[in-house]
Amino acid sequence: QKLVCCSTNNIMAAAHRQQRQHRKSIISAPTMFAVAIIAILFLPSAVHANGNAQVIFQNESKSKISIHWINPSTKEQVPMIPNVDANSNVQLNSFEGHSFEIHQTPNDDGECNATADDKTCHVGYFTVVPAKEMKVQTVQINDRMEVSLQHVSPNVDPTAVVEAADKDKKYMDSYSYTSNADEDTVAQCMSILKRTLKTKAPPGSKEEREAMDKYFLCVNREMASTIKDLNDEVEFQKELRKTISAQVENVTCIDADAPSSPDLEVRDWTNERDGVTRPVHVKLDRSTSRIHVVKNFAAPEECEAMEAAAKPKLRRATVADGQGGSQLSENRKAMQAGIKPKWAKEAEGDLVARLSRRVYDYANHVLEGLELSHEGQESLMSIQYFGRGYNDTEPDRYTPHCDGECTGSPHLYGNRMATMVIYCTIPERGGHTNFQNANVHVKPERGAGVFFSYIDPKTKMMDDHLTQHSGCPIYEGEKKIITQWIRYGVDDASPWTSYNTLGIKYSEAGE
Q: How many other CB atoms are found less than 10 A from the CB of residue 457?
């Protein structure tokens, strides 16, 4: 039989048509989503438009066969199409240089039937020839899994196509899709489903429902394998990115003249409370990870009010100790003081309360639906760093860290999920804020605010290290900032002080 490639629109149209024809079918929203994801991920035009080729495998043996793509990066075989019947054809979309193994499928006794005297299960190999020479490549497979390429163009060497897996190619072959223009037939699983409706079935009939059941079971089963492969690759790339970014951290920070990273875009934000429109330079804008630089966020008098309130309270800054408490650390060299806004005097124009309110206004503007309030939140923190020259072996700085959970896990209720850092006094040299894993570097600018959130407000899933950041060393001058760590799930009845530095309520931790 033949699996024919089609477009994403045709696949989805066929599925939606079946769903409309029998409303009570087993097709679920997640299943439909899986079909769409596979279609988007593996359409060949999205991967390698110039080198794609159609490969038709003709199983001329007396046995069922399975077709496997060979992943050169992991040396693993990736099942593409299992259980291709004897004397049948199957088609998939591939790319030049990609290699396959064709496996003879054993019977229930673990034997194959190449010949009467040969019960060995054989394996054949095939590599796609340059697609510019031959867009359609027909591969014939005999009882011993010996492969021959038919309809070869005169300028292509036939011996070059029967070989072991190419070790250099690194992109995954696309799966094939199946669909039929006849509205009474159903699309089949593009990669592993070889069964199809062989007769026209009335809409809503038992035959049609069974075919759709098999189709979606096939898609879901293959989707699980595909997602695992993709997740493995994502994890590898993530760890590689973290390793590289850690190695270049000091190189990035030592360049005191480096400008801020380029903007993705610039937006305007008008605060309805004060009527002021401020430009927002968007550096990163993902659902779980946002980095925005808001110009002119704090007025000089607001910075001065914070500095005056903090002066008699300054103390050495601490970090979490990993056991629910805090401790001094050489990883964070700075002085700090927490200032609780006087909300009762906000209406009278209290500068600290006015600035703090603006922080929550912007957070609610970006993180729609969370309805964040100042109630139960941490105090505004005045943090001050001092430069002692390039020869200082232990300069004031804050090494790479996350303000909240940043491992991609669900948000713990009552914990941090966003931060606003406001530059009040900027150093002569150094003091940039570096988001190493996101390739974002922010040069301090007086009055500007760096807002970064590490939660998806819809799913409540946390960022996965993209908002990990550092305060680069201060070489010359002073750096004075105001930081507001913002939590979700706190209020006056359950304030931030109810939680230890592990994010666990003291009452639940037995403390």
A: 20
CA nearest neighbour of 274 among 291, 299, 292, 293: 299
Residue among 471, 452, 320 at smallest CA distance from 398: 471
Beta strand 136-141 with 52-59: parallel, antiparallel or unpaired?
parallel
| Per-residue tokens: 402 | 């996350």
Rounded Cα distance between 359 and 301, Å, is 16
Q: Bridge-partner residues for 338, per DSSP?
A: 381
b or e along 300-331 (b: 16 or more beta carbons within 10 Å of the residue's beta carbon)? eebbebbbebbeeeeeebebeeeeeeeeeeee
Tell me what pLDDT residue 138 has: 86
d(CA 282, CA 263): 6
pLDDT at 192: 39
Return d(Cα 246, Cα 238) in angstroms, integer.
12
Q: Nearest to residue 449, comparing CAs of 268, 296, 286, 276?
A: 296
pLDDT beneath 50: ranges in the chain: 1-50, 152-188, 190-197
Exposure on the CB side of residue 50, measured as CA atoms within 13 A: 0
Q: What strand order describes the sheet that includes 123-127?
A: 76-84, 65-71, 99-104, 123-127
How much is the pLDDT for 132?
Answer: 64
**Token pair 């199983």 is at which residue?**
59
Residues near 508 by beta carbon (within 8 Å), at least 6 away in sequence: none
Query: Are the C-beta atoms of 496 and 380 separated by less than 8 Å?
Result: no
pLDDT at 164: 29
State how far the Cα of 440 lies from the Cα of 436, in Å rounded to an integer. 7
What is the enclosing helix (H) or strand (E) of 124? strand 123-127
SS3 265: strand
| Total Cβ atoms within 10 A of residue 497 | 10
Q: Residue 167 is encoded by which pair of tokens?
A: 């070790």
The count of residues in the chain is 511
